Amino acid sequence: MGTVLTSPPTEEAGAAFARFVRWVAALEWSDLSPSARERTVGVLADDMAATFSALDEPQVALAQQRLREAALQGGPASLIAAGRPRMSVLQAAMGNGLAMGWNELDEGFRKAVCHAGLYVLPALLATAEAGNASLRDLLRALALGYEVVTRVARTWQFPALRIHPHALLAPVGAAAGLAFLQRLPAEQIVSAIAGAATLGMAGPFDHALKGVLARNTWAPQAAVAGLNAVEWAQCGIGGRAASPHDVYAVALGASTDLAVLTPHADEGWAVESGYQKMNACCQYAHSTIEAIQTLLANEPSLRGGERVTAITVEAHPLAYALDDRAPRTTLGAKFSVPHAAAAALVHGNGGATAFDAASLDDARIARLRNATTLVPFPELRPWPDDRPSRVTLTTDDGTSFDALCWSAQGGPDRPFPAAALWDKVATLSAPYAPAFAPTMRRMADAAASGSGSADLDRPWRDWLDACFSEPAPVTAAALDPQATKEH
Fold this sequence. Notes:
49% of the residues lie in helices and 8% in strands. It is α+β, with helices and mostly antiparallel strands.
């Protein structure tokens, strides 16, 4: 980490940003390390699987039904859903962007608050399909877009999370991925990405904590903003190189570390510092869930929580604010440490059912939420041990049990086994696209082999055809999305 410059000259910041983007624009797929290439496919598979996971959510199903009805004659892009409904690029980007982040099962970047794949992919997938781009070009654009938006997130950081990064940063990721896919001239790429930085939304971070579902619209809206930023840049309408600094530092008060924009990848590629989720909730709560799973492994009789009278969670600073004991929506539950702790105790895990609509009204979970107290974690460590949790359970006979998790599994320091990640992809996608997981595994093998694989030159559209080559049953929500209980 370089020296933090709290207020560098604006022109210096602009020059550093432009120099970095030009360097990224010159990179090819073959310039990435084999592990980065394989991880890029992992991001693609993980985020598309997360998209499948939300298709039966009532609000998502209704929104996608309305998109299908509006599409009428179809279009050049498709929804990541059973039957791949055809529609315009903009409509597909919106529909996929809404579903991709809905269940909090998409991957994220561990060194800053940034779900880079969610920011890059919705617009990129639709544009690559419509434009008949090759798999190689799609993966290159994903990896480079990921690199840009995560460097932006690390360069300009805020002392407190008041604006959600899905609102503020997602347009940058969307524009970056598209600009690299289309191989625009370097100066147009700078203009497009810088312009996208000015298109961020004023989405309050606490909307996630309060379960306000508008928060889930920021990623799809950012995909639209990214599409526009790239289109406008090709017309000579864009930002200046210093626009990101103007927005984040000058207007919004972020601290600035221009050393992060040094044009090299000596610390590895950003896609290699992502994390994956098995728990369907905010990553800040994962260490709490893991601590509870340790307790249950040591004391199986605690499972279900009937004996538990009090739960104390020593929470790291990012988790400490997630203290809602009565979430009213599934999103609110996903951003509630009391709910995460209670549901993990009842279910034994943090999977989708721990945060679904039924969990909100589960009397067992409600009792345990109200029995949960959050206190600040007393002894913080540097990354990667900066998001710990110590959980203490007190039972009806006065006995206490405690467990500590310094860093939840899934990050670069404690990655999940590859087999577990592929099982997740298969489980989430099988009801809609049974061939998706095996096709993605073949893609990962092709990507790891380097630039010589002819498979990488096949159109992304052909790979997508293969993903949906086996029929899937139509879901109940797709038939009648309003018939499901709404939360």
